[in-house]
Design a protein that fits this description.
By secondary structure, this protein is mainly α. It contains 2 helices and no strands.
Amino acid sequence: MADESCSRCKDLKTARSEIQTLKKWHNEELKNRLKTVTEAWEQKTQTLQKSYQILEEERRKLSQKLEAARKKHQELQRKNKELTEQITKIKSERQEELEYYKKIEAESKAKDNLLEQKDKKLNSEKSRNDYLSKKVETLKEMPGRIYNYSKDF
């Protein structure tokens, strides 16, 4: 029986030795795989970091462009407001001028009408004066008339 146990012991020792060899090989294989995965992960991480830095730089540039566009937009809005105010002021002035010209035109028409009426009255008086002058001439030319200038004129 001792031989059997020794033979079993040898088998066990051999099995143990094989298991330890397999464990070492397995551990080495795991270390190699872990190293490969870690290197790949580090490379991907570096690539992602570079991509992130590039994107971050693009974001920063776009932010600057956006800020510049906002400032330009505000400036254009301010100029638009100024121009709108100027247009409103000019329209108001033009409206006042138009009203003034209408007033002047109305006054001018009223003065023209008054002058026309005075002209008619003057023409009427002139016609009457002419008529009276002719009458006086006619009376002066009448035979037998004695002129008393102080009374006639």
